[in-house]
């Protein structure tokens, strides 16, 4: 009976701290939802070192806040801890890889190479852990098309992941193929897949992708026609703004 009392007493001693931590996490989530990322960071930085319950969620939210402020070094640190704590969670590997890739965009090419290679490794891990993980497959399509062959770039591997995307969602698969064929200078097939994505998806993203393809090919009139058609159907202000941006 005495040991049971001591055990209950210890639990009760820790309860106020647990409730406080949960309250602060909820507060941080509210600030995150309203875009106040600086406040999120100030709340969660000390909290992630203290709490045990929901620690992974707190670390993930802190990493996301750092990502929104483009503090890639800090985001990488948080996602790295997250992956160490939860090596079986695909989305954590993807976020870690994504932060590494974004960091690579801010440094010179020599420093970027190991970051991109590690990002590729993390995204492969995410895709293997979750056969339905769309974002990691998209990232791999882009990484394999951006990397030179000597560093592991491969159009065939990019097509493999684009095919996997297509099996999950045809729109993403067609958009990915439009992207990779465009990068490979196969403009006929790129246009074909962008149009297929638009026919099936009909979303703002699909209209913008096809319009950007035409703009990059110096086919402004085709781009404007696509954007006007999209605005007429969706009334998306972003499409109208794009028309105004490219119209003399």
From TrEMBL:
Gene3D superfamilies: Tetratricopeptide repeat domain. TPR repeats lie at residues 56-89, 171-204. This is TPR repeat. InterPro entries: TPR-like_helical_dom_sf, TPR_rpt. The keyword Transferase does not apply. It comes from Formosa agariphila (strain DSM 15362 / KCTC 12365 / LMG 23005 / KMM 3901 / M-2Alg 35-1). It holds the Pfam family TPR_8. Keywords: TPR repeat.
């Amino acid at each position: 009976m005495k040991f049971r009392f001591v055990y209950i007493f210890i639990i009760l001693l820790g309860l106020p701290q647990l409730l406080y931590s949960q309250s602060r996490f909820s507060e941080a989530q509210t600030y995150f939802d309203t875009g106040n990322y600086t406040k999120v960071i100030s709340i969660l930085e000390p909290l992630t070192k203290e709490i045990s319950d929901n620690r992974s969620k707190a670390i993930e939210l802190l990493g996301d806040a750092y990502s929104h402020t483009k503090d890639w070094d800090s985001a990488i640190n948080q996602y790295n801890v997250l992956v160490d704590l939860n090596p079986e969670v695909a989305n954590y590997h993807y976020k870690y890889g994504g932060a590494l890739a974004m960091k690579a965009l801010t440094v010179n090419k020599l420093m970027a190479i190991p970051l991109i290679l590690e990002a590729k490794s993390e995204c492969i891990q995410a895709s293997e852990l979750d056969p339905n993980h769309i974002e990691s497959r998209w990232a791999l399509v882009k990484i394999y098309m951006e990397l030179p062959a000597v560093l592991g770039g491969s159009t065939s591997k990019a097509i493999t992941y684009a095919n996997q995307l297509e099996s999950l969602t045809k729109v993403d698969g067609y958009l990915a193929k439009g992207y990779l064929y465009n990068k490979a200078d196969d403009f006929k097939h790129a246009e074909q897949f962008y149009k297929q994505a638009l026919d099936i998806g009909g979303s703002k993203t699909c209209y913008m992708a096809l319009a950007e393809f035409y703009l990059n090919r110096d086919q402004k009139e085709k781009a404007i026609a696509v954007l006007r058609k999209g605005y007429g159907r969706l009334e998306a202000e972003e499409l109208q703004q794009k028309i105004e941006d490219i119209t003399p």
